[in-house]
Every structure is written in C-alpha cells, then in structure tokens.
C-alpha cells in the first residue's frame, strides 16, 4: 500500500517510515499540512496517517480536504486529545480511525492492516461528508477508556444517516445522553428529538401516544391528536425502555420500521414518515426473544447499529474524569466555589462498584458538594448507600423476621421519641395506661 505520513515531529516521521517500509509499504512523508495535501493530490495514497496538530493547517481541515480530493483515501488520525468533540469531528468528516499519542505501534499497525484488508475486499467504508459549519453545544459525554471512545466513533458514524440504533446498557450508564448526541450531531438536528418512555403508559394509551388518534377513536377522544411519530417529523424518536413495549405495539413499530408508515388509532389514512428510531433498553433483549416476550423480527430490525454502554465498574479509569466534570458542573449549578477532592475520598469512589452507574455517581457527588462546607470534599462527605443495591439485596426485615416483642420495643421507643420523652403523652399515643408503660420500659430496658 501507499502510505502518506503527515506529522511535524521528525522523530515520529522517521520511525514510522522505517516501520512501514519494512512491512513492505511505499512510504511518503510530509511535515506540513500544505505539503501533505499536495502529496495526497499528486500521489493518491491508499492511507494517510495524519497528526491532528500541525504547524500550518488544523488536522481536521487537512482531513476534510483529503476526503474531498478522494474519499477512497483512508485517513488515520493521530491525536493527543481525549475529548469527545475532536473524535466525533474526526469520525464525522470521514476519518477511518484514530490513534492516541503516545503512539502504540501495534495499535497503529493493526489499524493499517485493517485498511489493507478492506482494500483487498473492496469493501471500502463510504462515510458521509458533512460540510456544514454549525457547531452545536452538546451535553458532553465524558470518558477516555476504549469502550467510550468506541462509542464516540459510533456516534460520529451514525449521526448523519437514519439507521436505527439500539442502545443497551445498565440503568444510569448514559443511554439517553448518547441518543441526544446522535441526534444533535447529525444533519437532522434542527428537527425534533421526541422521547417516549415505553414503560410509562398502559397499552391503549401508549399506541395513541405513539401514533396519535382520530376524534372519537375511543371514549374521551374528543379531538384528533398527533402522536409522537408525527411530532418527530424528520427528526428522531427515542423509544426508551423498549423492552416494556406490549407485544401488540411491537408489531406496529415493526411495521413502521419496514414500511415507514402508520395510521392513527381509529384512523384510516396511512401516514408516511421518515423519522429515525433510536431505542434504549437496560434489559437483555436476546433473552426476552428467547423467552418469547420480545418479537425476534423487531429485535433484528432494531439492532442495525447496536451501541453497548459498559457499566461504570468496568471502566473505572473514567471515574476521576467524571468526578472532576461533575464537581465543576454541580458547583456551578449550586453557585458554590469549585470543589477539590481528597485522595482518600477519590479512592473510596473508585473502589465502589456503582450499581447505579454514572447517575448514582452524580447524585453522590451532589450530596458531597452540599455537605462539604470547606472547599475540599473529604471521605466522610461521600455517603455511598446505593439505592439499587438496597433494592437488589434482601433487606434486614427479609433476612430477620422480627418478633412481636421486638416490634413492641421499637414502637414504644418511637412513641417516646416523638413526644420528647413525656410519658403521659406517650401513653395517650399508645393508648395504654401509665403503669403498663412503666412496666414495658423496664422490661425492654428503654432508656431516655
Ligand atoms: N459519560 C458521561 N459523561 C457525563 N455525564 C454522563 C455520562 N454518562 C451518564 N451521564 C449522566 O448521568 C445521568 C444518567 O444518564 P442517562 O439518563 O443518559 O442514563 P440512562 O442510561 O438513560 O439511564 P436509565 O436506564 O436509568 O434511563 C445523566 O445526568 C447524564 O447526563
Ligand atoms: Mg434513560
């Protein structure tokens, strides 16, 4: 293959040239963006390895120009940035892949080999080139671990087409955030993004919510009403908790995916629509298909592109970044000075398993910012009592069945606490006589 390397660091140029020459590739080099573009034009390389930071032209610009010269050239970006925007930008403008500095030669080589394979298979990726300049402010997705970087890539690759996307992941991992990123990074960003929580409504209401209804379709349908599909127009409909869709409604969604059309409830007119569907679930749909509670045909239609968000405990090295991000965000929201975090507090956070994932982390940090009067968050400000964990684990009451006496003791104590220790009032509350109360206090050894 013909490989063009554009990088202003001589050491990198030399070592990469040597490496790829030895692998039998024809290697060209350029130190400047301008020079690189000339060579790309005259030499038509198969692959360009491009540093995003160049002395004369921004690497993204170089990427765009190369792709407009010839969109069959594979461009591999080298970047020192971990942030989502650069990555999404690069992928959006047609970068084939990107590698972080310091360069891991095996990773780079693997990526070049992939190109080589793709070329021999004549299986080139054609990626939509978007030259709109508008930049939208996004809800930032934080993360530098491989799986999150992979998700940035998928967002870049899916945002400008209408392929159906299925986002899977535990509760609180950021599924909705990803759906938004896909919508707002795409060309349809000025069209609506409409969300529907499929578990929130009973079946009949859900159908009318999704597809609308005609006047008189059912009792109480006094007026005709547009459904979410109509409201989403050319934009995106986000079907959250898709696993909760009743079986009947699943068939209607399937039909929409196949025919791009539907009718309002009680309506005869067929409505055409070009809405894109993004679905999310925290359930295992494959298992549901096996159990017969989710339609297999719908499952296959939905998962054209699947994005699987790993739980936070499987990407712990993102935790410090997230903590930093949330502490800034929360302090700002609460009009407080930015908070620092002690090493021990951070250790405690990193060690925890986060069953409620990023949402739980955000909540715990919110509490910590409120609780910390000083500007440093200490270990004691991190109160980790996971709601999810409490839900999933048997409560004390389940493991230990209380005796009547235990309950009586608890109840008397509660009564005394409520009335501030006034025995007379406690008797009234408990509807017992004073001598009885005295006896019980003695028996259970209840202290003031
Ligand atoms: N990588 C991330 N970077 C920054 N914020 C994040 C990230 N992931 C999640 N969040 C934040 O965590 C919260 C939960 O995210 P989101 O609502 O997208 O999760 P979800 O997967 O849809 O959860 P659920 O299944 O419970 O609906 C949001 O406030 C979101 O902004
Ligand atoms: Mg959600």
CATH class of the largest domain: Alpha Beta
For the biggest sheet, the summary is: 5 strands, parallel
Oligomer: single chain
CATH homology superfamily name of the largest domain: P-loop containing nucleotide triphosphate hydrolases
Low confidence ranges:
121-138, 386-398
Q: Provide a count of the helices.
A: 20
Q: How far do the termini sit from each other?
A: 86 Å
Helix content: 40-55%
How would you classify the helix and strand content by structural class?
A: alpha/beta
Which molecules are bound in this entry? adenosine-5'-triphosphate, magnesium ion
The tally of domains stands at 4
Proportion in β-strands: 5-15%
- Give the neighbour order of strands across the main sheet: 2-1-3-4-5
Question: What do we call the CATH topology of the largest domain?
Answer: Rossmann fold
* Mass-distribution shape: flat
Give the name of the CATH architecture of the largest domain: 3-Layer(aba) Sandwich
Number of strands: 14
Average of the residue pLDDT scores: 85
Q: Any idea what the radius of gyration is? A: 30 Å
Describe it.
By secondary structure, the chain is of the alpha/beta class. The chain has four domains: 2-120, 3-Layer(aba) Sandwich (Rossmann fold); 146-309, P-loop containing nucleotide triphosphate hydrolases (Rossmann fold); 312-392, Helicase, Ruva Protein, domain 3 (Orthogonal Bundle); 401-443, Orthogonal Bundle (Arc Repressor Mutant, subunit A). Helix 2 packs parallel to helix 3 and helix 6 (146-158) runs parallel beside helix 7. It has helices at 10-22, 33-43, 59-69, 84-92, 105-120, 146-158, 175-185, 203-211, 228-231, 247-259, 285-291, 296-302, 319-333, 343-351, 357-371, 387-392, 396-399, 404-418, 423-430, 434-443, and strands at residues 2-6, 26-30, 47-51, 74-79, 97-100, 165-169, 193-197, 236-240, 261-263, 270-272, 276-281, 305-309, 340-341, 376-377. It is flat and about 105 Å long. The protein is 46% helix and 14% strand. It has a five-stranded parallel beta sheet with strand order 2-1-3-4-5, sandwiched between helices. Strands 7-8-11-6-12 form a five-stranded parallel beta sheet. A two-stranded antiparallel sheet has the order 9-10. The protein binds adenosine-5'-triphosphate (ATP) and magnesium ion. Adenosine-5'-triphosphate (ATP) is lined by residues 139, 141-143, 169, 171-177, 282, 322, 358-359, 362. Magnesium ion is lined by residues 175-176, 240.
